[in-house]
TrEMBL record, chain A:
Pfam assignment, any one: ABC_tran
UniProt keyword terms in alphabetical order: ATP-binding, Nucleotide-binding, Transport
Domain ABC transporter: 3-236
Molecular function terms from GO: ATP binding
Protein name as it appears in the record: Branched-chain amino acid transport system ATP-binding protein
PANTHER family: AMINO ACID ABC TRANSPORTER ATP-BINDING PROTEIN, CONSERVED COMPONENT OF ABC TRANSPORTER FOR NATURAL AMINO ACIDS-RELATED
Cross-referenced InterPro entries: AAA+_ATPase, ABC_AA/LPS_Transport, ABC_transporter-like_ATP-bd, P-loop_NTPase
Xref: SMART domains: AAA
PROSITE patterns to which the protein is assigned, alphabetical: ABC_TRANSPORTER_2 (PS50893)
Keyword Cytoplasm recorded: no
From TrEMBL, chain B:
Keywords: Amino-acid transport, ATP-binding, Nucleotide-binding, Transport
Superkingdom to which the source organism belongs: Bacteria
GO MF assignments: ATP binding
Taxonomic source organism: Labrys wisconsinensis
Family: Belongs to the ABC transporter superfamily.
Phylogenetic placement of the source organism: Bacteria, Pseudomonadati, Pseudomonadota, Alphaproteobacteria, Hyphomicrobiales
Pfam families given in the database record: ABC_tran
Protein name in the entry: Branched-chain amino acid transport system ATP-binding protein
InterPro entries reported for this sequence: AAA+_ATPase, ABC_transporter-like_ATP-bd, ABC_transporter-like_CS, BCAA_Transport_ATP-bd_LivF, P-loop_NTPase
UniProtKB/TrEMBL annotation, chain D:
Protein name stated in the entry: Branched-chain amino acid transport system permease protein
Membrane topology: Multi-pass membrane protein
Localization terms from the record: Cell membrane
Similarity remark: Belongs to the binding-protein-dependent transport system permease family. LivHM subfamily.
TM regions (residue ranges): 7-31, 37-54, 61-80, 92-114, 135-161, 190-212, 224-251
Keyword Chaperone: no
TrEMBL record, chain E:
Principal location class: membrane
Membrane topology field: Multi-pass membrane protein
Keyword Membrane (UniProt): yes
Keywords: Cell membrane, Membrane, Transmembrane, Transmembrane helix
Origin: domain of life: Bacteria
Listed InterPro entries: ABC_transp_permease, LivM-like
Cross-referenced PANTHER family: ABC TRANSPORTER ATP-BINDING PROTEIN, HIGH-AFFINITY BRANCHED-CHAIN AMINO ACID TRANSPORT SYSTEM PERMEASE
Protein location: Cell membrane
Name of the protein described by the UniProt record: Branched-chain amino acid transport system permease protein
Length: 238, 233, 407, 289, 375
């Protein structure tokens, strides 16, 4: 088991955002996470990456308890995420954005890191913009950069938060292709996405959150067909 | 006379030109959808109308008066409201205060009041005293829409309001558009989700690299025409 | 006319012109202008006539800046003598630079202890104190102000309980020092001193001190306090019903405006008096009497006279006198020797180095000028006048009235 | 016991003074994220203005302060629109340096105009009046009035901030000026109003500063650090916090002084550090900080 | 090791077509010039008068302070208003170690830097709990605490202060060596020795800061400044990095403080911990020159020095002018003088930006660095 969450709980004041969620991700799989707005999906990522500390429960990586491990260290242990709202390093070039990630997220030497970054840039379609400043990118490119930067840390577990929102259908297809490539290379993926058809093109398993609780989990197509998922999330059949 | 009349509009970010001699009108009570690929200039267009990006005075007319390049606050007080891309709630205001602040110093009276908004989005009523930014993305989008509506604008600008929303919420948000239109409010809808946009719009304009490449009624436009207008070839 | 430009004498003058101590420097322009007028046709030293120039530098009331401008005067302006005035915060950094550079330096308007002891490398250890080679100072010392204060107090019937306000700065530490300051002398004279401790300047609350003074039933308040702090203290004391019979305070009550700021509560406060226009002294440069110079100041500036006028003037007197006696006015060593041998009657009284009135360790560098005590009296015109009320320490200075208890 | 009581009372009253110095600072800190290094000097400027008005028109300083209040408000508005607006931004340094510039200009301008002499506003009997509270203790009327005024100012500003549309607009602008414009709010006008309000408050602070003790052109910066400490202890943008911060500081100082005057200022600073080590965002942090 | 499928290894050959470049032509020329200037400056005391040497001493020490402050505020985002804490600490350590413990001043200056770091470690754990404005005020308060505590140390002069004895200022081995070497009076030799120390300090500081910025750490610092959240999530340990910068700045500032006070030879708590002299003016220099660049403080110190040298005689008018300049520069050149020049002419003498450039002829993609290009 690559990642395991056990009864993880997080509350902001009286608002319980993650209410005893348990979750396992096996090495090499691709898991989708869906749920209404405010269900606690992004918070779940924050808990896994260590940006937010849980009130209770345990988080394990490779069976090792990492609940108290600081965020930066978890990254070096192989967990990296993209942010729902992109946070590019605005005064750094796209290439440098990736270089930071490669140097610190995976402690590579700079020369080695540079080669690796070129590879990731090419994969994510950002190579032509390598020397542009992060702050000048369009929304689409910012999202690409989020993913590319996470990828530059050579994560074993890649967490993607709403990476397909705001894309045209063609762009979306291209993105799905890229994510499949990454997955095929052996990276484990957990993907939060509201664009359900894109999600289904990649993930095999789906977890549904509502009000901080896991309400359904299983093989993607069958979960999507559940009536309760339709009622609280989809509104209509896909 | 059109409510909003845009003629030969150029827009710049420093040296970079984002809009090229754009012409566009929005009639009273009309819903116009603006579509186009990423970076086509849709958000730029809205920012220029609202005065966040400078424009030639005569290039934008609202209610017959030239407003191009006026300070944003002046423009918005004339009866334009905007739901900005990325929601942009005020973190130190509660949900209710976020809604109320939308009515600051603006004219316009009509259907939209706090009570009416809580009816439209019941979850906001329940969390009226939480800080606006403690809400989830979808809830925040509702606040952003409510905040714009509360001034009862005659023109409502929406920048990608379905971005990041659960399918069921998108449906709800779009479901509320007819009741907004019913008040006689004209709407300019910038949207990636073409299907949604075409379903509610009276008219569609497609932008490509800062120029309008297509215009027409949804029913009249073929899939191929849109495809072509989007990406050129 | 007749001045050979080739040989000129340059005097450097450092004082606080801006910043919190600027009140001390207010009379400088007047004094320097008068001095330049006096020497405008050159200074005859031996066979040669020199043009005299004064390079004025502002310390900005900042010790760092004072050291910097001193260095500038030495290396850039190549001045022949540095003159510096007003509080240890100004005199000490300047004199320190001059000492290192072996340039003659004359200073004043700081009691000699904070000047001499404050410049030692270990002020706490008297055995380590050493004299200076090229820097000289004239003013009075703590022993004088203590004598003046106790003489004034002796004129009134009190319970001999004294409260001390000593800040943690150059003056305050010297005045409150257990060896050279007020405490030992007061003890010897039978006074009980309550000293709550060194406070920081610009303190907003003196209730702790007031409580301590009340507990000790203090009749007499003394100390060396900056003007805003004294106002805070005095106002708060009145509010809390603490009314001593005497308040003799250094520094706070030097300038008429500072006393006026106290309103009616300034009446009969007492202070040390180092110079007034009634002092029976004359300038060795111009022959003008103290009264004449005081009147000229009022006429030139429209402001009442202040005590630093006399001392700023005397700095120039000592410098010119030394230059005249110097074997070679352009040679620092010769001029230093001449300053050390000064014996001159000036506007602030006689100035002589090496006198018995100064302890042996400081004798070489320090000369003392007379000090008396006075009280501020509110006149019928609503203006304050300082009246000399005790001259036992310097009988040549006439008395203007007797000590009165604060109402 | 009586002394402890006295210490606490004196400390609280002193806290009122600090809170009054800090109120205007807190306000513009809260609205514009402006660290105003000139705040102390502007208070001194107001004090001189009161002095001039009182002398020229033969007024009691309180009356003169009432005249000075609108003048300072206008000055604040003009200063904000004319100078500070242009340098406000994400970065705190340009406004920091600009207010440093204003600080030395005001200081030295006053020095040129009024010389270094120390001045005082004379308020006659009010200066020394006191109320006996038993046990031989007395409370000065002036410190009490200072404290009460500080509380009233804070109550007033708080009401404006949290119970009026203007206050909402202030907070919205402070969060995100660009989006606030989309609400029809003109940030520049609001910032101008905020600075006007802050300087009006500083006129009140100046009145008490001037009656309480001497002032001269250079005395402004000395209390700036206490005002900042009060603001920060309380939590940025919280006006009640500023009052609480002032009181914490005041009591820490009087307690320290009771042990030994050497500890007076030091204990205030140490209290500040202790509070912040325990609560790094102050006692009453604002949401979303 | 690649996470990409082995089938995708083919395009990985691509990396061979690019290399990373940092320098610019301007920077190469600047490097050569710098070496020449440095040599010239080192030889200067042989040619120039004491006045110039003295002025340059001040300039170099202020420049060193400015570089360290810039490292903190401009590169690590730690806007401290309390660096006078370390100037004062370094200065007091110098006085304590020489006058009391009898060490040679040059050694004492080095130890003063070390001492500053030792004190900075516990201090960091207090101030690092605070952010932005809280941090700024917090550091200021800490510096005040240092001042008030040292004002209680009677053996270092308490609130009165103390002066260095002549044996300390003039009998250092370096001063004696200089005097012999150049055949100078002791006082002049002391100036020259201090000058060389200051020159070494300023040049060494710039070289060091530049090296840091070009390293991975420099990159990470920029990332933290842009978004700490994102930096953390890609494995940058922001706390540790900022702590390192803070400690380095404390070391350099303490060292510089000791050197400054070796020259002043007199210390008092108010002077050594002056927020005006050691932070406000330094802030002025850095921000006027241009925050976040190495060139900025150099330009700033030149402006500051020229103003002071030419105009300080005008008293309060000079200070008002200084204030006015601060306001005007911030109004019209918010990035500082150098920042505006660099922006206008796209100039960088100390380039740190890494560009990906195609190896000649073989690249598959043209790379552009324009803000708004499309593909
Ligand atoms: N702040 C800016 N500085 C420079 N260029 C910008 C800026 N904002 C946008 N641009 C450029 O202007 C062009 C139009 O951008 P705009 O944001 O209007 O696109 P859009 O149609 O809204 O795209 P999206 O669907 O991604 O929101 C793009 O090429 C973009 O790179
Ligand atoms: N810092 C915070 N303080 C208080 N409440 C918070 C905070 N962050 C998130 N919340 C609340 O936690 C809940 C879950 O938020 P989260 O962002 O995880 O939702 P999500 O499932 O990612 O939603 P979306 O699909 O809209 O992105 C929401 O109700 C939100 O209001
Ligand atoms: C300059 C001064 C501080 C003089 C001395 N301290 C006095 O009380 O008069
Ligand atoms: Mg989310
Ligand atoms: Mg857009």
């Amino acid at each position: 088991m690559l990642l395991e969450l056990k009864d993880v709980r997080k509350a902001y004041g009286s608002l319980v955002v993650t209410d005893g969620v348990s979750l396992s991700v096996t090495e090499g799989e691709a898991l989708g996470v869906i749920g209404p707005n405010g269900a606690g999906k992004t918070t779940l990522f924050a808990l896994i990456t260590g940006a937010v500390k849980p009130d209770a429960g345990a988080i394990r990586l490779d069976g090792r308890d990492i609940t108290a491990m600081p965020a930066a260290q978890r990254c070096r242990a192989g967990i990296c995420r993209s942010h729902q709202i992109p946070h590019p390093f605005e005064t750094l070039t796209v290439f440098e954005n990736l270089l930071v990630a490669a140097c610190f997220g995976r402690a590579m030497r700079e020369a080695e890191a540079a080669d690796w970054c070129v590879e990731v840039l090419a994969l994510t379609g950002l190579l032509a913009k390598a020397n542009r400043l992060g702050g000048t990118l369009t929304l689409l490119d910012r999202k690409r950069l989020e993913m590319a930067r996470a990828l530059a840390t050579r994560p074993r577990l890649l967490l993607l938060d709403e990476i397909a929102g705001g894309l045209t259908s063609a762009e979306c297809e291209a993105l799905v292709g890229t994510i499949r490539t990454i997955h095929a290379g052996g990276t484990t993926i957990v993907w939060i996405e509201h664009i359900v058809h894109a999600l289904l093109a990649v993930v095999g398993r789906l977890t549904v959150l509502n009000f901080g609780r896991k309400i359904a989990e299983g093989e993607a197509r069958s979960v999507i067909g559940l009536p309760e998922v339709r009622d609280i999330y989809l509104g209509s059949p896909v | 006379m059109a409510l909003l009349d845009i003629t030969a509009l150029d827009a710049f970010y420093g040296d970079f030109q984002a809009l090229f001699g754009l012409d566009l009108t929005v009639g009273r009570g009309e819903t116009l959808a603006i579509i186009g690929a990423n970076g086509a200039g849709k958000s730029t267009l809205l920012k220029t109308i609202t005065g966040l990006i400078p424009a030639r005075r005569e290039a934008v007319r609202f209610d017959g008066e030239p407003i191009g390049g006026l300070p944003a606050a002046d423009i918005m007080r004339r009866g334009i409201a905007m739901v900005p891309e990325g929601r942009k709630l005020f973190p130190s205001l509660t949900v209710e205060e976020n809604l109320l602040v939308g009515g600051w110093g603006r004219k316009g009276s009509g259907r939209w009041s706090l009570a009416a908004l809580y009816e439209l989005f019941p979850i906001l009523g329940a969390r009226r005293n939480s800080p606006g930014t403690a809400l989830s993305g979808g809830q925040q989008q509702m606040v952003a829409i409510g905040r714009a509506l509360i001034s009862n604008p005659s023109l409502l600008l929406c920048d990608e309001i379905s971005l990041g929303l659960a399918p069921i919420v998108i449906r709800d948000v779009y479901a509320c558009l007819p009741s907004i239109r019913a008040e006689g409010t004209a709407i300019v809808l910038v949207e990636q989700d073409i299907v949604q946009a075409l379903a509610v719009a009276d008219r569609v304009v497609c932008l490509q690299e800062g120029r309008a490449t297509l215009e027409g009624r949804p029913a009249e436009l073929s899939r191929e025409a849109i495809q072509h207008a989007y990406f050129g070839d | 006319p007749g001045v050979r430009a080739a040989s000129s004498i340059k005097l450097g003058y450092v004082s606080p012109r801006t910043g919190p101590l600027a009140a001390f420097g207010e009379a400088d322009d007047f004094v320097i202008k008068g001095f330049l007028e006096t020497v405008k046709s050159g200074l005859k030293l031996g066979d040669a006539t020199y043009a005299v120039d004064v390079v004025v530098k502002d310390s900005q009331s900042n010790p760092n800046r004072a050291a910097e401008v001193a260095k500038e005067l030495i290396v850039k302006d190549a001045v022949d003598i540095i003159l510096v005035s007003s509080t240890p915060e100004t005199t000490n950094p300047v004199a320190t630079q001059a000492e290192i550079e072996e340039v003659p330096c004359i200073s004043t308007v700081a009691p000699w202890q904070p000047y001499f002891i404050g410049r030692q490398s270990n002020p706490a250890d008297p055995k380590s104190w050493t004299p200076f080679n090229s820097t000289f100072h004239f003013f009075w010392g703590l022993e004088d102000v203590i004598a003046v204060f106790t003489n004034m107090w002796g004129q009134l019937a009190t319970n001999k309980s004294v409260g001390g306000l000593f800040p943690n700065d150059g003056d305050g530490n010297a005045w409150g020092d257990a060896n050279v300051g007020f405490p030992p002398v007061l003890a010897k004279l039978g006074y009980r001193l309550t000293d709550p401790g060194r406070y920081q300047n610009l303190t907003d609350d003196f209730s702790a001190q007031i409580a301590a003074f009340r507990k000790a039933e203090v009749d007499i308040v003394t100390g060396v306090v900056i003007p805003p702090d004294f106002t805070t203290f005095w106002t708060q004391a009145s509010q809390k019903g603490f009314r001593p019979k005497v308040a003799s305070v250094g520094k706070a009550l030097l300038f008429p405006v500072a006393v006026e700021a106290l309103g009616k509560a300034g009446h009969n406060l007492s202070s040390e008096v180092w110079w007034t226009p009634t002092h029976p002294f004359k300038s060795s440069l111009t022959g003008a009497s103290a009264a004449e110079i005081g009147a000229a100041y009022q006429q030139a500036t429209g402001k009442p006279w202040t005590q630093p006028i006399g001392f700023a003037h005397a700095l120039f007197e000592v410098a010119i006198d030394a230059l005249k006696r110097s074997a070679d006015p352009k040679d620092a060593k010769a001029t230093i020797a001449a300053i050390g041998a000064t014996s001159l009657d000036t506007l602030v009284g006689p100035i002589r180095f090496g006198q018995e009135t100064v302890p042996p360790f400081a004798r070489k560098n320090v000369a003392k000028t007379p000090l008396v005590g006075g009280q501020w009296r509110l006149g019928s015109d609503g203006k304050y006048q300082i009246v000399v009320t005790d001259n036992q320490t310097a009988p040549q200075i006439p008395i203007g009235g007797q000590m009165q208890a604060i109402a | 016991m009586a002394t402890l009581f006295d210490i606490l009372v004196q400390g609280t009253l002193l806290g009122g003074l600090y809170a009054l110095f800090a109120a205007g600072l807190s306000l513009i800190f809260g609205v514009m994220r402006l660290v105003n290094l000139a705040h102390g000097d502007l208070i001194v400027l107001a004090a001189f203005l009161i002095l001039v008005l009182a002398r020229a028109l033969g007024l009691h300083p309180i009356a003169a302060a009432l005249l000075c209040l609108p003048a300072m408000a206008v000055l604040g508005y003009v200063l904000q629109r004319g100078v500070l607006d242009a340098v406000l931004g994400r970065d705190i340094l340009p406004p920091l340096l600009t207010t440093f510039g204003i600080s030395i200009i005001v200081q030295n301008g006053l020095l040129q105009a009024f010389s270094a002499d120390s001045q005082r506003l004379s308020a006659g009997a009010l200066e020394t009046a006191s109320l006996p509270v038993g046990g031989g203790l007395a409370i000065g009327v002036l410190p009490l009035a200072t404290f009460v005024t500080a509380v009233l100012v804070i109550v007033g500003l708080n009401a404006v901030f949290y119970a009026t549309p203007l206050g909402r607009a202030f907070r919205a602008v402070s969060d995100d000026p660009a989006t606030a414009q989309l609400m029809g709010i003109d940030p520049r006008t609001l910032f101008g109003l905020a600075m006007g309000l802050a300087l009006a408050v500083s006129a009140i602070a100046a009145l008490f500063l001037g009656i309480r003790a001497n002032f001269d052109p250079t005395i402004g910066p000395a209390r700036l650090i206490f005002a900042f400490e009060a603001v920060i202890i309380g939590g940025l943008g919280s006006l009640w916090g500023t009052l609480a911060g002032g009181i914490v500081l005041g009591i820490a100082q009087t307690l320290g002084a009771a042990v030994n005057p050497e500890w007076q200022i030091l204990s205030g600073h140490l209290a500040f550090l202790v509070v912040l080590v325990l609560k790094p965002r102050g006692l009453f942090p604002r949401a979303g900080e | 090791m690649s996470i990409l499928a082995s089938a995708e290894r083919v395009p990985a050959e691509r990396e061979r077509h690019y290399r990373v470049a940092t320098g610019t032509r301007a920077s190469t020329i600047a490097g050569l010039l710098a070496a020449l200037v440095l040599a010239g400056l080192a030889a200067l005391p042989l040619l120039a008068g004491r006045g110039l040497v003295q002025d340059l001493f001040t300039v170099f020490t202020m420049l060193a302070l400015a570089q360290y402050w810039n490292l903190l505020a401009g590169f690590a985002g730690l806007v401290s208003v309390g660096q006078q804490a370390y100037v004062g600490l370094g200065a007091y350590l110098l006085f304590g170690l020489t006058a009391a413990a009898g060490l040679d001043p040059v050694l004492a200056i080095l130890l003063a830097g070390v001492g500053a770091v030792v004190v900075a470690v516990p201090t960091a754990f207090v101030v690092f709990r605070l952010r932005s404005a809280y941090f700024a005020i917090g550091t200021w308060v800490v510096a005040e605490v240092f001042r008030l505590v040292l004002a209680q140390v009677k053996s270092l002069g308490g609130g009165t202060g103390m002066s260095l004895p002549r044996e300390v200022t003039n009998d250092s081995a370096l001063v004696r060596l200089t005097a012999e070497l150049l055949g100078l009076r002791t006082a002049a030799a002391r100036d020259v020795a201090s000058y060389w120390l200051a020159l070494a300090l300023a040049a060494g500081t710039i070289a060091f800061v530049y090296a840091v910025l070009r390293s991975r750490r420099g990159l990470a610092l920029a990332a933290i400044r842009d978004s700490e959240t994102a930096a953390l999530s890609v494995g940058v340990d922001a706390f540790r990095l900022k702590l390192q910068v803070y400690l380095v700045a404390a070391f350099g500032t303490g060292l510089t403080g000791a050197l400054i006070y070796f020259q002043k030879a007199r210390i008092s708590p108010d002077a050594a911990f002056s927020v005006l002299d050691w932070t406000a003016y330094v802030l002025f220099i850095v921000v006027i020159g241009g925050l976040g660049s190495i060139e900025g403080p150099i330009v700033g110190v030149a402006v500051f020095y020229l103003l002071q040298d030419q105009l300080a005689g005008f008293g309060s008018w000079y200070l008002m002018l200084l204030g006015l300049i601060a306001i005007l520069v911030m109004r019209f050149f918010p990035k500082g003088l150098w920042g505006s020049i660099a922006h206008r002419f796209d100039l960088s003498l100390f380039p740190i930006r890494r560009h990906l450039v195609p190896r000649d002829g073989t690249a598959t993609h043209p790379l552009s660095s324009q803000g708004g290009d499309h593909d």
